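Write out the bound-state structure for iron/sulfur cluster.
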Amino acid sequence: MGKTIVQKILSAHTKDEVKEGNIIWLDIDVRSARDFGGPNVVKHYREHYGAEKVDDPKKTFFTFDLVAPAKTIKYAINQSICRKFAREQGIKVYDVGSGIGTHVLMEHGHILPGNTAVGTDSHYNIVGAIGAFGQGMGDVDITFVFKTGKTWFEVPKTVKIKIKGKFEYPTTAKDLTLYILKHIKTDFALGRSIEFYGESVENLPLFGRITLLSMVTEMGGIIGYIPFTENTIEEVKKFTGASDFNVFYADQDAAYEKEIEIDVDGLESQVAAPPHPHNVYPAKDLKDVKVNMIYIGSCTNGREEDIESAWRILKGKKIKEGIVLSITPATRRAYKNLMEKGILQDLFDMGAIITNPSCAGCAEGHPGMTGEGEVSLNTSNRNFPGKQGKGKTYLTSPEVAAASAITGRITDPREVL
Amino acid sequence: MKIKGRIFILKDKNGNLIKDIDTDQIYHNMYLHITDIKEMGKYCLGNLEGYENYSLVAKKNDIIIAGSNFGAGSSRQHAVDCFRSLGTGCIIAPSFGAIFKRNAINSGFCILECPKIAEYIKEGKISHGEICELDFENGIIKKENGEELFCIPPSKVQLDILKAGGLFEYGKRK
Ligand code: SF4
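---
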């Protein structure tokens, strides 16, 4: 019997039999903790392992991206606890200002295709975009991996999603993602690995793959993969700076638990209304929803290309009076490239707030939450009640976010193009 | 392992089990800076509509019943630890978010998958407030009248970690 992509990566990292439902001991290539979770990792570590060395400091990282820089003394203390532990152990810290941890670790070539990686971030499965296996875990789990370099894992079942049909700009990967979510909610893929096939997904550039695969978390999935094309291989080389890595493809006779086909032909811009990421409507059906805050960024849509695309729509237009538009590049590299292209300058001149690379508006409303009755339109991945304030959060693409910044209400970008 | 406690059902306004309760509803990100488990209990379910005051009415060994995909969302251990902080006995749901499930297992906190739980409630086989005894190892809810309701028994790894007293202890034997 052939293997699916996840089974191949897991097989390369364990001596145990990789069979669905089996519990295996998995070797972990990269382990990291953030400013949330990190202090608890240190606390557990000291309690259980004292001053013993971590398994491999070269494979262990801290990434500060959530409340970065710290906005209260408590957060500052938590970060300093991690920094101190890192110094003692010889662990590298990608400190405040570096950007979103998973993105930074991929960009610096720490996580490569075929690798296994875990961290205190529920969107760690985003590394599926570069063909790696990643899992978000809690602080107990991560402490254990820091010390042993291993963890237990239940081999997931794999499901297949075939995407049929084509769509055109200004419909992008985020619209595709939301549309898939609308169809499968959390029912189809809960606890599963997902493989996506079909021309429209396989042709996605790397940043689009990042968008779709980051939201496998919202689908309830363990991890997602889109088979690499020649172009993906070139893009991943450039992105990670590495030229040599293992790319895994599913075998022809691999077994899938179930399959679904979703037709996206002529797909239009989509928006997820509260309270769930799968509560999705065409953007044009929500055109009466007035917006107060717009946020472009996050691990899902904070790449250079995402922000550049938003800028292309905004260029030469005006941000509607009263709209607070915040923009956060995912990493320092994305920030620098956008700065050098003059795009950040342009956005700044239009009145946008440009913040340092981080999770910014996604995690704890740093910079900014909504008050009662306000609406935030957000390119991140979650709109659960109360996550970004008392108001309502709608999720969308950078293109819809930009168009809506011009009109002050949820807007299909074709209206302003 | 037996847990005797009060059944506490998380229902929405229409009387249905609440699905997809996410970690922000269980333990809001506003309190993530807290690292002392003793302090976490008071924020438990603090952002779940209708249950904001759960920590005030919580009882030790409560057996909480919720809808599918309980604990969706973030990787925060706090979402498990806030229940441990209150001495919650077990959480029963048709399914759990993957990371929440791992976090619960790793810290030796009892959770049981029970695909039929909504049916049991609908048929009046189990109701809010009654006292039941849970035979955790076999995944059986035993009612005071002797009736038994069946859930999926925990996996071997879940029991092994629980018996060892958590992942760290379990890991030492590996
Ligand atoms: S941007 Fe949001 S979802 Fe992504 S890693 Fe940061 S906090 Fe998590």
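---
The first strand of chain A starts at residue 23 and ends at 27.
The interface with chain B takes residues 23, 25, 36-37, 39-40, 43-44, 48, 72, 74-75, 78, 120-122, 124, 135-141, 143-144, 147-148, 152, 154, 186, 190-191, 217, 220, 222, 276, 363-364, 382, 384-387 of chain A (CB under 8 Å).
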